Amino acid sequence: MGGLMSETTERPIRTFHPRRGRMSGRHADAMAEVWPAYGLTVRDGDRTPLDPRELFGRAAPTVLEIGFGMGDSTAAMAAADPERDYLAVEVHTPGIGNLLALVGERGLTNVRVAHGDAMELVRKLPAGSLDAVHVYFPDPWPKARHHKRRLIQPANVALLRERLRPGGTLHCATDWAHYAAAMAETLDADPGLANLHDGFAPRPAHRPETKFERRGVTSGREIFDLIHRRA
């Protein structure tokens, strides 16, 4: 998940735990075979512009997936939605390997997989270049002293909104009630976003169930969706 970086020289506040983990042979093979054509590394401080049209080799609506976990949901959405391109960013290397494997196995040409800080990636994208941003089950950072590390903060939301086209949507989901309330307050306070529902949204059919969602339901937690549109 992304990190919050000021426009000064202050160190970024990370909104994710750097995670590597061990990769299976399948994932390692995907990194070797699929990454060269479909992967990109996000480097801190690199402001080289990234044009989705050049990245995907076509002009199509682009969806940014922040923190895709193991990538099963991203692959399912991309397969069901071939007219849009999916730019997916994660820091968990086994998840990156798994999504690359799914891309190769399913022949998904409308997915690109980025490794690194999501907000660093967002800063490289042109304003108005995204059709949608998905933030599904980000780290809730439940301890009060860690709330500053949450991805959905006013500065990050403003930057994500700027990258959306007019009419584009920012869709967040979480299974932590306190974070859901904080998300709602932050998103509703952004002057350029409008909530598409009266409070939380019904669970959209197009959002596949994620591993984190299943874990939350099994633990008895409610799932909260929030969908806001850029004015």
TrEMBL record:
S-adenosyl-L-methionine binds at residues 65, 90, 117, 139. One of its GO terms (cellular component) is tRNA methyltransferase complex. Its EC number is 2.1.1.33. The keyword RNA-binding does not apply. It is an enzyme of class 2 (transferase). It catalyses: guanosine(46) in tRNA + S-adenosyl-L-methionine = N(7)-methylguanosine(46) in tRNA + S-adenosyl-L-homocysteine. One of its GO terms (molecular function) is tRNA (guanine(46)-N7)-methyltransferase activity. Pathway: tRNA modification; N(7)-methylguanine-tRNA biosynthesis. Substrate binds at residues 143, 175, 210-213. The keyword S-adenosyl-L-methionine applies. PROSITE patterns: SAM_MT_TRMB. Keywords: Methyltransferase, S-adenosyl-L-methionine, Transferase, tRNA processing. PANTHER family: 3-DEOXY-D-MANNO-OCTULOSONIC-ACID TRANSFERASE/TRNA GUANINE-N 7 - -METHYLTRANSFERASE (PTHR23417), PENTACOTRIPEPTIDE-REPEAT REGION OF PRORP DOMAIN-CONTAINING PROTEIN (PTHR23417:SF14). Belongs to the class I-like SAM-binding methyltransferase superfamily. TrmB family. Catalyzes the formation of N(7)-methylguanine at position 46 (m7G46) in tRNA. This is tRNA (guanine-N(7)-)-methyltransferase. It comes from Actinoplanes nipponensis. The lineage of its organism: Bacteria, Bacillati, Actinomycetota, Actinomycetes, Micromonosporales. The gene is trmB.
